[in-house]
Amino acid sequence: MEKFLEEYRHSIYRYNSLIRDTGFYLKPLHVVSRNTSEGRRTYYYIGRYWWRVVYAGKSGKTSRVKWIYVGREKPPELAGYPDPPSHPIAGLRFSIDGRDVIIDKRVYEKYRWVFEGYKVVEE
Question: What 8-state DSSP symbol labels residue 116?
Fold first, then answer.
């Protein structure tokens, strides 16, 4: 799966270099960590997450930027720019619990080819 993520990430970074001057940024992977009753769990959402990057002044010698979430659809301000690259794993979401990857059965069915060769346990 890391191979797919790395490939997707690089294609999105190349796209971001094309739209750099617009103030928009396309985030290929969103990671959220939460404390649960079973311990800490990390959630991974692979897809297109649009952000606007805004200059927010300086703090000493360091410039500060503010990240504003725009949504999952390409902003209308980018109408004249090419569409972002598509990738077969966009839309995949899962969580990690220790060494286990936890994924909804419907999502697994759609992306089962990514997990070929891994042991699958249904709960």
Answer: T
Q: What confidence score (pLDDT) does residue 1 get?
A: 64
Looking at residue 74, its pLDDT comes to 92
Q: What is the mean pLDDT of each run of 10 residues along the chain (123 residues)?
A: 79 92 90 83 83 85 87 92 84 79 84 79 76
Amino acid at residue number 103 = I
Contacts of 107 (CB under 8 A, 6+ apart): 92, 93, 94
Give 75's Cβ-side CA count (13 Å radius): 16
Tokens, residue 87? 């990738």
Which parts of the chain are beta strand (E)? 24-36, 39-59, 62-71, 93-97, 100-102
DSSP string, 68-96: EEEESSPPGGGTTSPPPPP-TTTT-EEEE
